[in-house]
Design brief:
mainly alpha
Length: about 300
């Protein structure tokens, strides 16, 4: 089956934008920016410590050298988002797995930001910063294990031949990725500029952990819903539609987590991963009933 003109254009542009050369370039840039960001953050911390400059706003990330790890993690997160956009055409499952990895890195990054706030001499169960640290550490461990189970479940997914209809669907998802990439670049720049403006000119403190990611996951929800709608014309199988819809709910739960704090924040993130794992497990039970058939034969 001959490809349509729009499919040929999308395939060509996607290959150029996400070429192996460009991927290696982004990876190398991420490495160097992480190193430069870490050193620059350390220099700012010690410059403030020796009173070489002052800030008109609260700058907790400039109080402790440990906080300098926050900057390279932020840059690595941007690289992970790039990988998410790159892998979006592969499958819903791969996309959701990347989302879980991104939110786990956000939790780890938050730990480095909150460590300087803890009080070792206080009662850990009654001090909010200490409790937040406990919640985040346990949340990261739980999420890491759930991602491991989710990826194992992904390996058990049945392989399918790339027929013309499926090829067309993959090309449609590549078009979504090409639209998503510049949109996310613009959103990240806008969020960063707006954050700096609010700090220096309005002296408004904004939760740095939610900058850009509120908008990012909102855009991702729209992209996932659009892909879900596109999938309706390529498959009518109930199990696949339920699986894809369930994964959209996972993204929504992650997005909702940015609107709350403390235990509720971690609980929403964990519930998203648990829900995604259950959806995938049930889907595999339905699509791979081999063990059950073998047991009946025996």
């Amino acid at each position: 089956m001959k490809m349509k003109k729009w499919q040929t254009i999308v395939e060509s542009v996607f290959t150029k934008v996400f070429s192996e050369k460009n991927q290696k370039g982004v990876e190398k840039a991420t490495l160097w920016l992480s190193i430069i960001g870490f050193i620059s953050h350390l220099l700012l911390i010690y410059a403030k410590k020796f009173e070489l400059f002052t800030t008109p706003f609260e700058a907790s990330l400039l109080d402790d050298p440990i906080s300098a790890i926050y900057t390279p993690f932020s840059i690595i997160l941007i690289y992970e988002i790039y990988l998410l956009v790159l892998n979006l055409p592969r499958s819903f499952t791969t996309s959701v797995s990347k989302q879980f990895e991104i939110i786990s890195l956000i939790l780890i990054r938050r730990i480095f930001a909150d460590i300087p706030k803890i009080d070792l001499n206080a009662d850990w169960l009654s001090t909010p910063p200490n409790l937040q640290l406990i919640c985040d550490v346990l949340g990261v461990l739980t999420l890491y294990y759930l991602i491991h189970l989710f990826n194992n479940g992904q390996l058990r997914l049945p392989s399918k031949p790339l027929n013309p209809k499926l090829k067309s669907f993959v090309t449609s998802k590549k078009a979504v990725s090409l639209i998503l990439l510049p949109l996310l670049i613009f959103t990240s720049i806008y969020s960063g500029v707006n954050w700096v403006y609010d700090m220096f000119y309005n002296h408004i403190g904004i939760d740095i952990n939610s900058i850009f990611y509120n908008e990012f996951f909102s855009i991702l929800i729209l992209a996932d819903v659009f892909i879900l709608l596109l999938s309706f014309q390529y498959t009518e199988r109930y199990s696949q539609l339920i699986r894809n819809t369930g994964f959209v709910i996972c993204t929504i739960l992650i997005r909702l987590s940015f609107g709350v704090s403390g235990l509720t924040n971690v609980a929403l993130i964990i519930s998203s991963a648990v829900f995604g794992l259950l959806i995938l497990t049930i889907y595999n039970m339905r699509e791979n009933p081999k063990k059950e058939k073998e047991a009946i034969k025996i």
